[in-house]
Structures are given as structure tokens and as C-alpha cells.
Amino acid sequence: MENFDVIVVGGGPAGLSAAISAARAGMKVCVVERGDYPGTKNVMGGVLYTQPTNEVVPDFWKDAPLERPVIEQRYGIMSKDELFTAAYRDPAWGQPPYNAHTVLRVKFDRWLAEEAEKLGVMIVPETVVDDLLYHGDDVVGVRTTRPDGDLGAKVVILAEGANNFVAVKAGLAKPLHPDSVAVVAKEIIALPAEKIEDRFCLEPHEGATIELFGDSTDGILGTSFIYTNKDSISIGVGAMVGAMGRKGWSPNDLLENLKAKPYIKRLLQGGEIKEYLAHLIPEGGYNSVPKLYRQGVMVVGDAAMFVNGLTREGSNLATTSGLIAGKVAAEAIQSGDTSAQAMSVYETRLRDSFVIKDLYKFRNLIGLLENNPHLLGEYPEMLNQAARMYFTIDGTPKTEVFKNIMGVFTKRRGKSGLVKDMFKAWRALK
Amino acid sequence: MKLDDKLYLVRFNTDTLNHIKIKNPDLCLKCKDKVCTFICPAHVYDWDEEENRIAVGYEGCLECGTCRVACTDDNILWEYPRGGFGVSWKNG
How far apart are CA A83 and CA A76, in angstroms? Predict the structure, then answer.
């Protein structure tokens, strides 16, 4: 049996960041990946944030295969064919130090794995980890599904992604619940760069993102996204599995429904579908975070439910948790103590970071939106109705227009309903 | 574009082993909604009227894992295909 200091299960941003940070601290590290090479099984929207990635590979933007730096973020609220949008744009985001880039994970993850290899990390591809390997109660490595596939390690970092098989077997996580994961259907649609730049008002090498709420998911808790790559568009719809099942939606139909909306149709016009993809997003938030460590083990990234759905952050939480776990693993091994107590330093540092602080901040949001479907159902309709009344010029005096707009909200929700909704939202976000 | 045509765009290295099993086919007979038949993004599951069972086309599985989470009877044994097999994204 080959022995390592650290074995990382899964070669995504969380796992590779963990591997790189452990290798930098002098550890002998192995990443076990089930795809042909890291990236081929990996999917995200995908927006990659600069700050945490820069901590993994300084000045990564000089070499990494990135699509476009994001200079505009647009949010939209949809009601049938109506759309209310707001956007923020800063051309400075198109220059170093950047804020975020769009990426295609097959290219990016492969590059990141090569960076890990430069530091001596061994990547074992085409290998599925079946379980942890125990000696008594102590974790001493991983068992792969290959013949004679045991690998020894002092610390195992689980970066296996949303489908958290090993973490469940280890008793750290519970099986996924339909109300805590979203399924995403996504397409890559090829479009010439000039068309992308014209349609999204971009200079060459600038990028934009759009997230849509409301009717884009038929009022189900979730979002739709449209991201500009170099010469393609990533478009997808993610919605909670439980609610989709109850409403009878298939992910592909939800995506086709979005693509048929007038505004979206025009953005994609003439594009050619290059790939159709699907993936799970752990959206359960703080209350669904598993036990993050035990003797000789830490859980990072999607496997730890580190996704902030409201702000579509995930890769940054994955990267940051991986960096911390890799460092804690090295410190524990160097001090000869890989006990649960030594591993608990990982959770302590996560709690001091934005990762758990943000998940905690929004801990009641998922429940609020799931238990109050009218917030994502009726409010987008009311908002668009109000905007339509405000912008329609038909001889109605403005005093009456404002009165009518107020009437839209009070009629649908009642005055006390509005106050209650606002109170609930305030309580969930305070 | 129809779903079948979209799935033609996906690159697979198909395994000869099936990585998906219905644990207890009798439970499917009583299952009213048959969520697997519509919630799978690749339409891997289909109700076979003649044989009265769920037919599983594992070869087209996109490996998202939605089916096993969505099945209201927890009746789908879904595991990863063997290493190196299954879907191999071109873009991600």
C-alpha cells in the first residue's frame, strides 16, 4: 500500500486548493479523482472569484485558462414575459486585480491540477474512492474501487462534491434531502465574440453575468444564470429538487422555458448548442452543513454544503475551505497529532472566516423562501406590474398612478400581509 | 433542440456495468408521481407500460445524482460509474 501524508478525495477547486496548500507546507499529497483528469466531471455556472484563487496560485490570471473578467453583474426579476432588471458595471473590474472571471471548469480545473503537480502533488485519475480506510477507529487512508486500491494517509480531505457518498459512509454527513439541493440544467451555446460583445455592451475581453429570479424558475426557489464566455454563453436554470418534483418540472423543460422568453431568446439568437450539462448544487445553507471533521478527516467545498445561493457564491467558499484544510492537515501532521481535536482547528478557522459567517448570516433564508412561496411567486408579478404602471403613459395623473401602484401591493397581500412579509424578510437577514 | 439531440452532444465513455439499480421494483408499481421519469435531466428513467417497471438507460446518465435524492421512496441505488467511465465533459 502506498502511503501519503494527505489524500484528497476529488479534484475540484476545493480539493486542488487543499492539495496545493498542503504541498506548499511540505506534505506528500495525493488527489484521487474519478474523471479522466481533474475537470472532466466538474460543472459550475461558472463564476470564479479572484481573491481566494489568487491565494492558491498568485497572479493566476496571467496563465490560467479564463474566459472573461466580469465587469457587469445584472439581476433580473421575471414575471411571464415581463422583466425588471438592475445592474452594476465597473470597467475597472476588467483589469488586475479583477473581481471575478467566467470559466469553463474542464479547462480551468485541469490547469489547477497541473499547478498542483508542479508542487509535487500526485494526481490519481480514473479512480473512485469507495470509503475511508480504518485501523480500529482511526482513519488511515482511503479504499478505492480498484483492485488492491487501498491508499494510506495520515489525513484525508473529503472534496468529493455535492454527492457526498464518503462523508455519509463516515457518519459525518446525512444523505442529501430534496429540499436542500438544487438541480441545474445548463447549456454551452457557441456565439461569435463580436456578437457577445454587442449584445452585452462589452469591450473585447470583458464579460457580464445575469441572474434571474421569479418566473425563470416558475417561482420555485432557485435562479437562472447567463454568463458570457470568450465565444460562448453559459446558460442554466437551478431549482430545488423537492419543489421541482412536486410541481412536475423537468430540468430541461425549465431551461427551454427560460430560453423561450423574449429577452433571453434575443441574447442567444443564432447560437449553436455545444454541450448540455447537469449538476447538483447543495443549497441547504448553514443548517445542512455536516460535521466538518473527525480524527484524520476534514470535509471541504460542496461536500460540506459550502454554497451561498443568494449571492451565487460557491467556488470561493470551496477554495477558501480547501486552503484552510490543507494547512490544518500539514500543521497537524507536523506536530504528530491528527486527533479530532487537532482537526477541529479547521472548523474554528472557518468560523472566523467569511465561509461560515456568511452561511450563518443567511441561515434562515432558505426556510423563509420555502415556507413562503408567495415571496418568489407573487412579488415578482407585483414588482413588474408596478413598473408597468409607472412607465405606462396613458393620461392617468401621477397621483393616481402612485395610488394604483400601492393598490397592487395592498390588494394582493393586504396591508398586514405586507408588513408581515417585510418583518419575516428582515428577521431572516438581520 | 430536442433533449435527445442535446444528449448526442455529450461525450461518454460508456461502461458495460450498470451503475444504477432500482432497489425494489414492486415499490414503483405503487408509486403515483414517478418523479424519476421527469426530474432526471437526461431522461434516464422511463415507465415501461408492457413490463410494468421502470426502464433505466444508465448509458445516458449525466451523473448529477438528482434521481436518488428525488425518489420519494428512496428506491434508487445510484453510484458513480467506475473510474474513467461515464460522462466526460468537454467544457464543464
Answer: 6
